[in-house]
Protein: Arginine--tRNA ligase
Organism: Asanoa siamensis
Amino acid sequence: MAVPPLAESLSDAVVAALATAGVAEVAPRIRRSQHADFQADGVLTSAGALRRDPRALAAEVAAALPTGDRLAAARVAGPGFVNLDLTDRALLDQLAARLTDPRLGVGRPESGVTTVVDYSQPNVAKEMHVGHLRSTVIGDALVRTLEHLGGDVVRRNHLGDWGTQFGMLIQHRFEHPDESGAMADLMALYRAAQALFRSDAAFADRARRRVVALQAGDPATLAAWRAMVDESTRYFSEIYERLGVRLTAADAVGESAYNDALPGVADELAAAGIAVLSDGALCVFTDFAATPLIVRKSDGGFGYAATDLAAIRQRVGALAADRILYVVDARQSLHFRLVFETARRAGWLPSTVDAVHVPFGTVLGRDGRPFRTRDGDTVPLRDLLDDAVDRARVVVADKNPDLTGAALDDRARAVGIGAVKYADLATGRTRDYVYDPDRMLALTGDTGVYLQYAHARVRSILARAGGTRPTVDPTASLHPAERALILDLDAFAETLSDVVTTYEPHRLCAYLHRLAQTFTTFYDRCPVLRASGAARANRLALCHLTGDTFHTGLSLLGIEAPDQL
Ligand code: ARG
């Protein structure tokens, strides 16, 4: 049995003390406090419900908590909180237990739960942009954390690989057979085809007939479509690989995959009376949205909504999802409310299955407007990553003048890519943030590089100490900076649980950033290599555990943590 986090053991103790004081069925919250190691609430609310004086009740709870080996003191605080202090012994026992646990005290609360995560979702024949970057890195961090907590995760890259735009794209290709089909040229093709579609009515007509041919499965049309999808998928895979994101071609189940299911979706909804005809379109009306969800357009075509409905049916049915996460920008939140509501009514999304839109804010340029090139185009992700790695090379070379060649390239990549991902992940998920390469590569502040350096510094201390893992001496007494570090390290498991209950990876970023600061204070106040005896062993143990926590934490964010920088 893994040793539970201190806050959890304390929570159990407070529940027992509350029971002694005559209060049952409350889940007290145990929080870190400035005035004690922890503070328990929970007394306040129950006192109100039981019409008892909160301070008197808190005093009873405090008195019922056994102090001794582990609990040093339990005192009433404020209007009815209980402040809890632990003994050095309790903290050192905890440190010793964590040091020998490769999971760092993290359990597997997600085991037996299947989560489908729909993320990344770029569009074929279009450049991936910063919005797709957000979906990709947030989705990847959630996937990694869910899996680390024991969950079964199915990744779904819901590629935009279907729709009427393929009519004009394919038609244009057929009319200009000399043009290459490479990704860079597909972008140009998109622009050219779109311009022609708007200005040339005859071309627009041919493009529309091409859509019909595509849907009817005309072999030449289908082959041209497939070539575009393949070329784009190759390009996206390259980006995923550079980003170190765990998405492969096998996870790409694009919109086209649901095509055959769309008529059935519409028919079932119509037969059940959930969808009704309105101006020729098959619509689902709700009382919360001014506009209906359009399942089938008046021309008989299906769109984005029908595809998402078919996907839910498949994810709940064939994939046996307990939870489906959609990491998609915040502007699509009404779409998802409508889709989920429709699927609930149709019985495709039973109440036992959670469907959650995990929205994120917009990436802005330094001018505070959505991040674009001067011509208003989206900035290709590939260029952004190249730029970040180039800047990182300067930062790394500056710190390490001896580093050259492949070794320099390797670190520049880890730092540059890490910087981009961290900047994205560290921002509150639903907030907009400014894409600022200078700031994201700063060595101090809330950046990926700062954390990578903090990790490398711990590793270098350990390398200088040499030898194996120390044995903790639980009888030593602790410096306040050591106590603070043990308490922060012990909050790792809870932080990861928070990430998967709120779907907010920035909580892990904030945790690691705070840990780096706590470690810095510890290292300033408590000499490690110059210490001896029990102090040295215990401090080295703290360095080991800090290094491992940084490493695991960063890897759950999808960020590399090299031992040297
Ligand atoms: N491809 C869409 C876009 O680029 C996002 C798709 C989101 N996923 C979904 N299941 N609807 O905006």
Summary: The chain has 20 helices and 13 strands. The CA atoms of residues 168 and 207 lie 4 Å apart. The pocket of arginine is lined by residues 118, 121, 123, 158, 160, 308, 326, 328 (CB under 6 Å).
